[in-house]
Amino acid sequence: ITVQVNKSVAPVPKNMFGLFFEDINFAADGGLYPELVKNKSFETDDRLIGWRAIKGGSALTEYIVLSEQPISKSNTHYLRLTSRTNSPDAGLTNEGFRGMGVKQGENYNFSIYARRGPGSISGLTVTLEDEKGNTLAQTKVGGLTNEWKQYTAVLRSSATSGKAHLKMTVEGTGTVDLDVMSLFPQDTWMKRPNGLRTDLVQLLKDMKPGFLRFPGGCIVEGRTLAQRYQWKETIGDLNSRASLINRWNTEFAHRYTPDYYQSFGLGFFEYFQLAEDLGAEPLPILNIGMACQFNSAEQAPLSATTPGGPSAVATGAEAHNHADDISLETFIQDALDLVEFANGPVTSPWGAKRAAMGHPAPFNLKMIGAGNEQWGPQYIERYKPFAKALKAKYPNIELIASSGPDPGDERFKYATEQFRELKADFIDEHYYSKPEWFRENVGRYDDYPRNGPKIFAGEYAAHPATPVSPRDKNTWEAAISEAAFMTGLERNGDVVKMASYAPLFANVDAWQWGPDLIWFDNLNAYGSPSYYVQKLFSLNKGTTILPVQLPGNAKNGANNLFVSAVADDPAGDVVVKLINYSTSARPVTLNLAGAKKVGKTGKAMVMATNDLQTQNSLNEPTKLAPKEETFQVKSGSAVSYTLAPNSFTVLRIPGK
Ligand code: AHR
């Protein structure tokens, strides 16, 4: 293998390896956003999702959701509890998101709005219990009046439980109105009051991501256009952010979770803030007036390239959701206002809203995605005026167009041609395919035109063939195949400027789609082998792409050996990534052509196992993770190294 150390293909793109965040698999509520109470405001379509009467209720206690005289115009439903008996069982529990995760000695901020009605109810008892009903913390809320008022307390948990719940009982008889009951950890990322779950953010931070794409994914478009993601509804006062059914609350997902809603506690402000915390460029994807995939032109949904995904199953009402229902102007205006929200001065209407939320400084938004996964003529026709209006007002904002989820599909090719003609800044390509597709398409961008739009590989993941359950698809075979493919992305960094695995997160108890990068329960989290592949690429992305020559001048991997190389100029290292997709060890010699000086000791980071079915889990979170070792560079500028069977190796060699 020859690595041309004294030649440069191009600089490594600054934001090359980033993150795709979508609220799928309980990634937001029940995941990154650590509110413990589900449906805290009784605003979901089925108003009592998450709530249960204690011991199944009795004829002496009544629970009814009302909307007369609510706490505000934007939070219109509340619970009226009527108790005709002075019983310790008059009350209700909230189950959390497949339970609540609480830790021994940690503090949790409790708050509730209450208003007493006729009768003698003067207070509430609030108890945090583990799954067996043992008390972990308790507080009393007293002095209720006949006006809405917020009451707060701090609960300190006496033990750790991943399956706790919150119980609230009333003292006395009569009626009481209750709303916005919240239990929120004090230990959040940056200790923010509405902050994010620390261990999950840390896993992201550790990847040093170049960008953060949000809020999806199909979630952008919604199951219907009426249920699309509207960023303006997700900012400002927390209690005014109305819940919306999640696009992944569908029996056509890999797994059906009928209790899946979006609270928007994690909204656009919080996404921008997260991007800033991670040192990643924010990359919002906006709806341009089309619902999820299916109304991209008058055509049938794509075939099942995303196994069990939306395209495999769209029928009936989901398929008929025409773009013309809402004027395009609305979507254009949303985009223009978003730029002002992110970047505008505090004296501008939307910049003022950002400042009021605690961030007067701009977020420096530089890119926007127009639509998620669309491709047909109807999409192109909408893209044109959208792009024109955005560029007229904000010429420096780069716009990302979509080509759909299947590179083999004619419509994908059609969209690509159209966007080349339109001179789009970026095309967002998605590929969910079998592991072999990734290994066979390593050269996808080798001969790609260099003079047109740049590529954003915005969603990809290797999906081992069914019948393996989606839960069991995060195998080493998937991850090593992605690593092979990523060498192709890396060496074509002059045209592929950004790439992100998808989806990012999955709750082990509440997922809808697999495989996923990071899995978690209410207390712990682990990265899949794919996570460590992404992390190794990102942490070793270097600064300059170097030309690599494989044995026999092979382009698409030489006999299942895949290689890319970069120089990390500040560190003074040559970094070579090598994938040996073979059950045999493979000795290789790297000729560092043109190197003037090569150090004696190199560093190797290795992921290897002969068992391609290896997965990580909550019990064995790092069963397959990189191991570091040093190695001796033996002779001059020729480096000899033996690659382990089925391995991904990153070699850092000091030299220039
Ligand atoms: O990543 C899961 C889904 O896959 C995304 O929501 C969609 O864009 C794609 O079909």
Automatic annotation (TrEMBL):
GO terms for molecular function: alpha-L-arabinofuranosidase activity. Its EC number is 3.2.1.55. It is an enzyme of class 3 (hydrolase). Keywords: Glycoprotein, Hydrolase, Signal. The keyword Signal applies. Residues 458-647 form the Alpha-L-arabinofuranosidase C-terminal domain. It comes from the Bacteria. SMART domains: Alpha-L-AF_C. It catalyses: Hydrolysis of terminal non-reducing alpha-L-arabinofuranoside residues in alpha-L-arabinosides. The keyword Signal applies. Pfam families: Alpha-L-AF_C, ASD1_dom, CBM_4_9. One of its GO terms (biological process) is L-arabinose metabolic process. Belongs to the glycosyl hydrolase 51 family. This is non-reducing end alpha-L-arabinofuranosidase. It comes from Hymenobacter aerilatus.
